[in-house]
Amino acid sequence: MTSLIKTPRQLITIVVLAFAVPIAVGVLVSQLVTSGEKGMDKDDNKVLARIQPVGEVVLVDASGPKGALTGEQVYGQVCKICHDAGLAGAPKIGDKAAWRSRIAAGEKTLDQRAIAGFQGKAGAMPAKGGNADLTDDEVRRAVVYIANKSGASWKEPAAATTAPMATTSAPAVATSVATSAATSAATPAAAGKADGKRVFESTCTVCHGAGIAGAPKVGDKAAWAPRIAQGINVLYAHAIVGLTGKTGVMPPKGGNLSLTDPDVKAAVDFMVAASK
């Protein structure tokens, strides 16, 4: 066998080709990759459909649709403020002796008193526990829940079915996410800021709206003046930790322990501003 390379010129040619061919191939490939968009003749809708996400989860309001709260949920958010501690003459939940005569009056009578409000000899029941956002059915469920814990055996009205978590197509989700991001970016300070009015209306109004249990009514300047004079930090402490005074009782966080300290402080600020 003999070598194919017989002369120096052939050797030089082979060496040059060994370098030139790979370089030429690399240049051609790079030009092909960077020469512009591929698939320009393809249908854009088909391309978008092929690359879109399989799906996205859309979180709904944790509280569910209006009117869907169970009796236990309504009790925990509203009724326990008075009925846990027996404030303002409210019969304590589980006290069968205190509830016996009330249960004997009948479910319809208790429903009417809880929805419309009631002034009794020993205390007052504000309409819907002071939370006007509750539906009549939600109040009825709370009445049944409390009564059953105190000796009754009534059937709680069925709650509305909570809307399931939904998925949407990719284009719609992309629009929703972009809108949410734009809103968040536009109002960074608003996110996480406690809403004093909202906290007042959901919790504090039960006592401070009607002056129950010795609570100074919001807007009563004379009642609030000596309290405001103590300083805002003192009011914060009383509202968060609780206070037993000569004229009434302030339960910790208004009886709603799910509130954060900033929530409570915001509610105090709201009441003070409305009572100066």
**Biggest sheet record:** 2 strands, antiparallel
Task: Give the helix/strand class.
Answer: mainly alpha
Average per-residue pLDDT, rounded, comes to 77
Secondary structure tally, helices: 11
What is the rounded distance between the termini?
A: 112 Å
Unreliable segments of 5+ consecutive residues:
162-191
Shape: elongated
Structural account:
By secondary structure, the protein is mostly helical. The chain has helices at 8-34, 44-51, 71-83, 96-104, 107-116, 136-149, 170-186, 196-208, 221-229, 232-241, 261-274; strands spanning 56-58, 118-119, 124-125, 166-168, 243-244, 249-250. The strands form three sheets. A two-stranded antiparallel ribbon has the order 1-4. A two-stranded antiparallel sheet has the order 2-3. A hairpin with a 4-residue loop joins strand 5 and strand 6 (249-250). Helix 3 crosses helix 6 and helix 10 (232-241) crosses helix 11. It is elongated. Residues 162-191 have low confidence and may be disordered.
What are the defining features of this structure?
single chain, 276 residues, mainly alpha, 6 strands, 52% helix
Short description:
The chain has 276 residues and is mainly alpha-helical. 52% of the residues lie in helices and 5% in strands.
Describe the protein's topology.
Layout: H1 8-34, H2 44-51, E1 56-58, H3 71-83, H4 96-104, H5 107-116, E2 118-119, E3 124-125, H6 136-149, E4 166-168, H7 170-186, H8 196-208, H9 221-229, H10 232-241, E5 243-244, E6 249-250, H11 261-274
Antiparallel strand pairs: 1-4, 2-3, 5-6
Helix pairs in contact: 3-6, 5-6, 8-11, 10-11
